[in-house]
Amino acid sequence: MKLFISQIFILLVSNVLSQNPSIKVLDTDFSKGRLQNVQTITLNDAVKLHGHLCDGLVVGFLGLKEGLYKLYPDSIIDRTNNRIVSKPSPCLTDIAIFMTGARYQYNTYYVSDSIKYQFIVQRIDNEKTYGIKLKPGLMPTAIDSLGRLATKGELDACGIDSLRKLESEFSTFLLSKNPQDLFIIEEIKNYKWLPVLKGNFLKTDVLNKKLQNCLPR
Ligand SMILES: [Zn+2]
After folding, report:
1. Ligand 1 mean position, distance from CA 135 (Å)
2. What ranges in the chain are assigned the alpha helix state H?
3. Which of 108, 119, 156, 186 is the most buried (most CB within 10 A)?
4. pLDDT digit string, tens, across residues 165-187
């Protein structure tokens, strides 16, 4: 039974990663180099940084891709030229730094739970700014309610597996759609970069790390 459940998850994850979205980025070409290193980065690359595939990573990748294309109409994202504010979820924060090149220690990145978007991303050279969020009603309400229980440690082993399945199915749904239909992306005029540096957010993706496997009843 245990094997059967893990096989289902391998299938769900490989299904999502088979639709591995990508984005072209521009970086410098060595430690003191010129801005001429063009490379393609993918959702699968982000999974390796983040540690796992999850719906938050998919939401972030697709939403930021759409928002960054508005900042860079040539569709090559300059990862030396962005600032970003992210909601505090561990998945959104990792994808935010990965795709934009923004970093806390260089005053180009901070986290806030009071913004009305999932991300606010700003192109530094022209200060053009967009707020990005998933359209309301797309995420199944059960992901939210079960997620809340999991964060409080109130979801048992089999409940955690159900949540994982729901999130995987939601990821597959998102990847099957045109991202333009999934996100609200609004320009924010005269956005002022006013970072508030906080280090006490809850890292919700490690709270259940010692949970036993779901056993057959
Ligand atoms: Zn995650």
Report:
1. 20
2. 2-17, 43-50, 55-71, 90-100, 141-151, 157-176
3. 119
4. 999 999 999 999 999 999 999 99
